[in-house]
Amino acid sequence: MDLDIKGRSALVLGGSKGMGFSTAEALAREGAQVAIVARNETALNASALAIGATPIVADLSNRAQVLACIEKTQSTIGNPDILVVNTGGPKPATFAETSPDGWREAADHLFHFTIEVLTAFLEPMQKRGWGRVILITSTAAVEPIPTLLYSNVLRAGLHGLVNSLSAEVAQHGITVNAVMPGLIATDRMKSLGLNLGDMEERIPAKRLGKPEEMADLVSFLCSNRAAYITGQAIACDGGLVRKI
Ligand SMILES: NC(=O)c1ccc[n+]([C@@H]2O[C@H](COP(=O)([O-])OP(=O)(O)OC[C@H]3O[C@@H](n4cnc5c(N)ncnc54)[C@H](OP(=O)(O)O)[C@@H]3O)[C@@H](O)[C@H]2O)c1
Question: Residue 242: inside a domain, yes or no?
Fold first, then answer.
């Protein structure tokens, strides 16, 4: 299927590895002009080179670096038509293991940069009359995971943002959606030290997802074909989360 995004510009945050990288790769393959953002410059440059993307080094939990990243995006690929909001996940914690400073740090890591990039890039999308915004969140937003308190709470907040914002900007040809990975085989997943055999047994599909499977969903939502899908939170989880 032709996604009809050839020549569109796309910014993929957290784009050097995992689902972000697979998404950037899929968008580049469709002919979009892609920029990817991450902290580790060496890994970022290698990933950018592999798919012909522009690398932008930034720590998205640091406001000054987020603002510099916005400027660098504008001076390289321009104001993006497509914005994929993604980073690494926050630290695992039960409520007893959280702290006020931990909450502030987690909000910097997941929430505040999202607002900064939306503030910078939504208005140009509105002027252009076309835009796609995808937030990579987690099924934790709809089915909380006991050891991932920061993720449960802040991602539910991001879903509230998707819901409210999508209604405000739909008339301008902009869609805003969240995609919820279930258990996807990435470095992040391996770093959590979980028993993957047990996890696979719990998934109706009996296997972890592949980053490319998430990328297929995200790139479809970024496409011209998905113009009438907005304000949704869509899982890619092999049937893990059960809700009507
Ligand atoms: N994998 C899963 O099963 C799963 C399930 C539910 C939710 N999620 C969520 O989905 C998101 C992506 O997960 P993933 O598994 O694809 O992760 P990943 O493989 O660890 O990739 C994360 C990407 O984000 C970049 N990044 C991390 N922190 C950053 C920061 N502060 N500033 C800029 N870039 C940053 C990383 O590069 P650098 O480290 O070089 O910065 C990398 O490019 C995460 O938020 C995760 O919590 C994942």
Answer: no
Number of domains composing the chain: 1
Is residue 1 in some structural domain?
no
**pLDDT given at position 188:** 78
In a domain, 244, yes or no: no
- Mean pLDDT of all residues in 208-229: 98
Q: Which of 173, 140, 185, 182 is nearest to 159 (CA)?
A: 140
CA gap 56, 68 in Å, rounded: 9
Ligand 1 center from residue 127 Cα (angstroms): 31
Q: Is 186 in the pocket of ligand 1 (CB under 6 A)?
A: yes
Please indicate whether residue 82, judged by its CB atom, sits closer than 6 Å to ligand 1.
Answer: no
- Examine residue 243 and state whether it is found in any structural domain, yes or no: no
What is this structure's pTM? 0.98
Q: Range of 31's domain?
A: 9-236
